[in-house]
Amino acid sequence: MDFQLTREQELLRDTVHAFADEVLKPRAAALDRSREFPIDNYRRCAELGLCGMMVPETYGGAGFDGVSYVIAIEEVSRACASSGVILSVNNSLFCAPVLRHGTEAQKRKYLAPHARGEKIGAYCLTEPDCGSDAAALRTLARKKADRYLLKGNKVFVTNGVAAHTFVVYATLDPKLRHHGICAFIVERDFPGLRLGKPEHKMGITCSGSVEIVLDDCEVPAANLLGAEGEGFKIAMSTLDGGRIGIAAQAIGIGRAALEESLAYSQGRRAFGQRIADFQATQWKLADMATELEAARLLAYRAAWLRDQQRRCSLETSMAKLFASEACMRAAKEGVQIHGGYGYIDEYAVERLFRDAKITEIYEGTSEIQRLVIAKEILKED
Ligand SMILES: Cc1cc2nc3c(=O)[nH]c(=O)nc-3n(C[C@H](O)[C@H](O)[C@H](O)COP(=O)(O)OP(=O)(O)OC[C@H]3O[C@@H](n4cnc5c(N)ncnc54)[C@H](O)[C@@H]3O)c2cc1C
Predict the structure, then answer these.
(1) CATH number for the domain formed by residue range(s) 7-119
(2) I need a labelling partner for 90 at 20 to 30 A (CA). Which of 10, 112, 225, 362 fits?
């Protein structure tokens, strides 16, 4: 067992860290307030190869491994949590399923522009009446000659306001539940697709979440991803990868809360000493650092397993569950260490606290992660 990052991984970490400090971090508070999709951040990330990190170079990607991906998303999210999830969705929820399940023609057409960051991808599974229970989705797919007509509404679509291409999940017949679900690659200007209501969010305010309305949206049959009825399997295996990205995002947000708290606690004084000199503060800092380190190891391991093409639903759910809850605890204690100032938006921990919460919700809530983990560990051999 080797706990040493490779030279390439260290170089990537240092490069993305410096870039995030110089470019992303100074903009994060203003973007949080403006709620504008940070297209310039995305383009700058593209210059570093962060949009299609695990896409092979032959398809226009950067050809990194999964651990490198965790490293980069952590560094980006430490500076700007919205940019972290925007990248995570394009990498894990758009490029990854096209790479894994796409035909050669689909890969040639869609991977390169998304991996190079010229285009933005999104993932449309959740509907107004179903999120956790994805097999209950109701968006209909009707085959008509050489096309499918998609009808239904998708909500909370990250990147949606700026996306050029969406992987949309729809069913041939809701009664078939997971057996009826299909995945489609849908372009923004296919007839019948329009953006609906933008979501006004608590945190990650500029990640472009929007409702997508499909009104008999016309999708060429060639844009079916995988076979008919394979969509549920594609959605779930995609989420295995996505959860690694969200674990990395959570570690980044939590680490930012820790770093802000370390700095603040060594400057702020009470009762004649630095608040960092109170054991109560030290214990908080020690717990934050320990939990984030444990989360990072879980995320690296899940990413490594996925790279080996090994089954990793258990490990990805453990990484996502632990990292997101460690992130939330770190953000909560970060606010506490800042006292009243932690509640004021001039201090980064106020934003980090709001950004942290979503990591316990999207790509499977903490309850759903526990359900997956319990199912795996109760499985008979
Ligand atoms: C900011 C944001 C961005 C998002 N981005 C995307 C995106 O890009 N694409 C996309 O498709 N979706 C996206 N989502 C949707 C997200 O993945 C869902 O909100 C999430 O999976 C939960 O689904 P739900 O909101 O329908 O909650 P529900 O499924 O209604 O759950 C409500 C509560 O019940 C609990 N619960 C449900 N089932 C069980 C069970 N079996 N056992 C125990 N507890 C249970 C849940 O844990 C939760 O606490 C996003 C959501 C948000 C808020």
Answers:
(1) 1.10.540.10
(2) 10
